[in-house]
Prior knowledge:
Elements: E1 8-13, H1 47-54, E2 59-65, H2 74-88, E3 93-96, H3 104-115, E4 120-124, H4 145-150, H5 152-156, E5 160-163, H6 170-179, E6 185-187, H7 198-211, E7 217-221, H8 233-247, E8 252-254, H9 267-277, H10 283-297
Parallel strand pairs: 1-2, 2-3, 3-4, 4-5, 5-6, 6-7, 7-8
Helix pairs in contact: 6-7, 8-9
Amino acid sequence: MASALTRIVDAHHHLWDLSANYYPWLTDKVGPRMYGDYAAIRRNYRVDDFCRDIAALPIVKSVHVQAEHDHEDPVRETRWLQSVADDSGYPHAIVAYADLSVPEDRLEAVLDAHCACANVRGVRQMVHEVLVPEMGRSINLFENVRWQRNLAALARRSLLFDLQILPPQAKAAFRVAAMHPHLQFVLVHCAQPRDRSDAGMAAWRAAVELLSELPNLAIKLSGFGMFERNWTVTSLRPVVYWAIDCVGPDRVMFGSNFPVDGLMRDYATLWRAYDEITQQHTDAERDAMFYGTAARLYRI
């Protein structure tokens, strides 16, 4: 049996304060969501709440991923998060929002403002939503030439890109990522195995296998409750193993996706499941997956 985990980076979580910032999807523009009813998380989730969820777990560092704050003012969220980090220590890395489809000068200004905050390490702009009608996003960013070109602005600043897609977008994602070999991509929520049918899972496996050929891509294992609300260790195990087998432990990291995944399981139960699933791996491999990969790529 593998040794007990002594250090973990939570590579994907969120914080929000509805009184300090504006999150339309949690307040005044609440509509059908891809992953079900979000009513239970339409309340503040601050760093104290996150630390309470951590409790005795050895979460020594964390990565905050943009929480769909007002897209018209994305830097406000980043500045708030930096102030939280300066006061509390969490989060150690910030993945901010930026619209990469805007003219280059506008993007440069937003990225410069983000990078003025010490903990900024990357950008997420969700590209999967064009395939989800209820999200109301009609632009296919993979076909947007300006968006493709503007990814280079991230590499110039040593920022990574948190890539959130669905399996049908894997070929387009592969093509774009191959165009930017100097940009680190992190495949968010392991390409989102939303379709749990046999055909859907086969398509997901093919997507992950294809993307694993990219040397500049790592996989983030997170968000499983959004795709399988009643997941078990048994149901998660083949998904986790497939990702690890495709890229190896040095390109895998785990995240909680809290508080969103808190709708399905408590924080400790989630990490116990990850721990149990990886018992067959060596201590060095587990340290890479639970700590080293995220610490290295997010530079924390």
